[in-house]
Amino acid sequence: MKNKKLAAVILAAGRGTRMKSKRSKILHPLAGVPMGAYPIQLARELGADPVALVIGHDPENVRDTFAEANVQFTLQAEQLGTGHALLCAENLLRDFKGSLLLLCGDVPLLCADTLERLCDQHFSQKAAMTLLTVNLPDPKGYGRIIRQGEDVIRIVEDKDASSEEKTITEINTGIYLFEAPLIFELLGQLGNNNSQGEYYLTDTIELAREKGLKVSALATDHPEEVQGINDRVHLAQAEAVLRRRINEKLMRNGVSLVDPSATYIDADVEVGEDTLIYPGAVISGATRIGCDCIIEAGSIICGCHIADKVHIKAGSVLTDSEVGKNSQVGPMAHLRPGTILRGDNKIGNFVETKKADIGEHSKASHLTYLGDTEIGKDVNIGCGTITCNYDGVNKHKTIIEDHVFVGSDTQFVAPVVIGRNSLVGAGSTITRDVPPDALAISRTEQKNIEGWRLRKKKKSD
Ligand code: UD1
Ligand code: CA
Fold this sequence. Notes:
- By secondary structure, the chain is α/β, with parallel strands linked by helices.
- The protein has eight helices and 37 strands.
- The protein has two domains: 6-226, Alpha-Beta Complex (Spore Coat Polysaccharide Biosynthesis Protein SpsA, Chain A), CATH 3.90.550.10; 232-440, UDP N-Acetylglucosamine Acyltransferase, domain 1 (3 Solenoid), CATH 2.160.10.
- Uridine-diphosphate-N-acetylglucosamine binds at residues 11-14, 54, 56, 76, 79-82, 84-85, 104-106, 142-143, 155, 157, 171-174, 200-202, 228.
């Protein structure tokens, strides 16, 4: 009978000394997501419920970060070893009867397929515990699997191993499936008589065998999946693997990446078919990009919704903004939070927007700041226009209605409303509302002083 009831415990109390960090190891971001989110997500994918997280180092930040993750926390105040760590989850699983998946918070690359194979073997062999192992050319530092024929007899830690045992290349990944509550009963019997004075989870193997129970082991062919992250070199290697997975999935779903090795897209980003992304793009957060878009080199896009047929040109930075269909942004435009382009817009080079709601077909093609503004449809904002939204104390709004034409080098001293279909003459400083259909102009009149330059020159000769 296949036992379907599954819980998961994720060990994450360790200090992670080699990270040289104040923060818990599982908070370090990988492809834009904290490392610990990967095993949590994996446990969910397998259908585990509840999912418990054993925390120790930096517990407040870990609790805050995963507050919404629907996991239960248990604190291992002192890191007395992996056996002790799992025992800390006993109180959360007191009423649980079923199989218990043990994952590590610092093993983010593991895939569901591998765990499904682990479960299948566990159930088909009616095992009390099944270990996930792997053969490594350099097994140094890991627990070695001691077998007798097919059977696993015990695991010996690197620090406790004889020189002969150290030649064994099959190692313990630290991922297991246990039967519960049996495992807690075994953990209660652990001692810490070893070179590190720790309660070794791995010692439960011998305790199970003494009871005549089956201990099974599955060797995975994917060493990269079970690699733990111990330092920032590992972190960068894992990041590369995750980014490759994300990019390959996007490409298989119809997104073209000119150079996937130099394109940085976070795990939660969605991109539509026939969108083309150039190298150096960094796309993060919960960004959604539509179909038939072009994202040029060096575009930095975070938390944005970008509709279909949008062209983001080189070097543009977009944060928490919406870009409507058929719009063009950049090169080197800066869309700051709260920018909404309603569609068919053109935001050109060196234009900065913030809390700017810009109607359909409106344009600001060059060298402009639009902040705290509502702009209607078919508005043309001339080069060098500035909304003076801040008086040193408060922010004020500029409202520009439909079909307004704003000449170049205009300043709007907010609060100010520019009525529909009006025209603002180039070089104006607008401090008062403009009625619809009017011309507003605020330049001082031009004086031409004939011959002035020639007279000036004669004097100095
Ligand atoms: C453990 C295994 C070893 C295996 C290796 C794989 C034991 C005794 N040894 O080694 O056979 O090859 O993992 O990486 O189990 N942790 C806690 N609390 C503790 C100690 C550890 O939560 O008191 C957590 C760590 O945060 C980490 C995981 O357990 O996520 C593994 O700990 P680590 O110290 O890396 O492994 P070892 O105990 O050296
Ligand atoms: Ca001026």
